[in-house]
Amino acid sequence: MPMVTSHSWENVYQYxxxxxxxWYSAGLDKDIEQALQELEISSGKIxxxxxGPGTQAVALAKMGFEVTATDVSETxxxxxLKLANIQEAAVVFEVDDILATHLIPxxxxxxDRGVFHSFSLDEHDEYIGNIQRLLDVGGYLLLKCFSDKQxxxxxxxxxxxxxxxxxxxxxxxxxxISETEFRGPHQPYPKALFCIIQKT
Length: 200
Ligand SMILES: C[S@@+](CC[C@H](N)C(=O)[O-])C[C@H]1O[C@@H](n2cnc3c(N)ncnc32)[C@H](O)[C@@H]1O
Fold this sequence. Notes:
Elements: H1 6-15, H2 30-38, E1 45-49, H3 55-62, E2 66-71, H4 74-86, E3 91-95, E4 107-113, H5 124-134, E5 135-146, H6 161-167, E6 172-181, E7 191-199
Parallel strand pairs: 1-2, 1-4, 2-3, 4-5
Antiparallel strand pairs: 5-7, 6-7
Bound molecules: S-adenosylmethionine (SAM).
S-adenosylmethionine (SAM) binds next to helix 3 and strand 2.
């Protein structure tokens, strides 16, 4: 099973080329865009958790959302801030570990595009507790993770829809889970689940 530490994420952003990272998406992920439209959310406070390159945070800020973007990697945050400055997008960036977060509640929406699926089973309680604390009642977690339809075992953990239902069974309502892909610079695109989860 994969073991990814904050130290190894820092190495990824210090030595890797951002545009070549498997999760890189220059524009807003279509699944996120569609979910916001379906939920009729066009304003409010969004947390882009594990923002990495910062592209999702920048796109959301340019749509008018009040965006906070965090990452465990200092270098990721420095590079994302540079992107936001170039694109003149108002994003509040912070180095923060979601498993030991210092963020102040409440957010209307939390975006997790590729973060949760890197955590091991014994980190789930910490993650879920912090998501629950940070979201406003009725707020949404938009979660994109590897699907169990993705072949092989290298990289992130894979999830089935029923596992997601089970993980978020207390304090949340799972609104929908769709089979999709992680569209990035490399094909074939990894198979993913996109989950709309509401805090009850
Ligand atoms: C697969 S990348 C996705 C990046 C970004 N969400 C995107 O879609 O472009 C996962 C990101 O989560 C960050 N991350 C990993 N563990 C984290 C943690 N405990 N707290 C906050 N961010 C974390 C990594 O540094 C990395 O940038």
